[in-house]
């Protein structure tokens, strides 16, 4: 364990230095949900009034999940650049475990997501979102775990295809149904019954419902349980895939 923490820490420090030299991705990743919050949030007031409750308490959790998913999905692009420059091969010939090579990068992604989540929640509170400390903490933890799952999957897919031209359209293809069927922007109950039923098969919808319920202080065991279960399952599967790809000799 000590060796793993040391090796992953070395990778993490290198990744942080790279981000500090070029913080554009952090800024761009944060800008989209903030703009949604400022420009789209006020438009939701007539819709959310039908549901009851504070519009920002309803909207911020969705933006958190969107931030965790879409920001982390792009983590693999930098890995392709590292592979092309020979960094990955240089790391693989060291005694460091393949899991440490992945987790060192995940630490960076999770730290970046945490900072962005704090900014987003702070802005939501400033705009009038209801304050529920325990719910906010639970929602942020679920978001970070989901973001870690997406980042691990993104890294695994990046090392599998090794091409931005392949990765970009696949991410766009995945992002569209996730955005539309997870209830991030609008309640799925407002759509047709068949669309609402279809959305029940979207794991991210259950995560969104759990985060939103936590922010409202509604700790329904079914809703929270499904959200936590899917979050942990996705994180475990993505990490397993990521470590497996890093272990491949042709990675």
From TrEMBL:
InterPro entries: ABC2_TM (IPR013525), ABC2_TM_bact-type (IPR047817), ABC_2_transport (IPR000412), Nod_factor_ABC_transporter (IPR051784). It is a multi-pass membrane protein. The keyword Magnesium does not apply. The chain crosses the membrane at residues 23-44, 56-80, 110-129, 135-158, 170-195, 224-246. GO terms for biological process: response to antibiotic. Residues 24-249 form the ABC transmembrane type-2 domain. PROSITE patterns: ABC_TM2. It is found in: Cell membrane; Membrane. Keywords: Antibiotic resistance, Cell membrane, Membrane, Transmembrane, Transmembrane helix, Transport. The keyword Aminoacyl-tRNA synthetase does not apply. GO terms for molecular function: ABC-type transporter activity. One of its GO terms (cellular component) is ATP-binding cassette (ABC) transporter complex. Its main location: membrane. Belongs to the ABC-2 integral membrane protein family. This is Transport permease protein. It comes from Nocardioides lianchengensis.
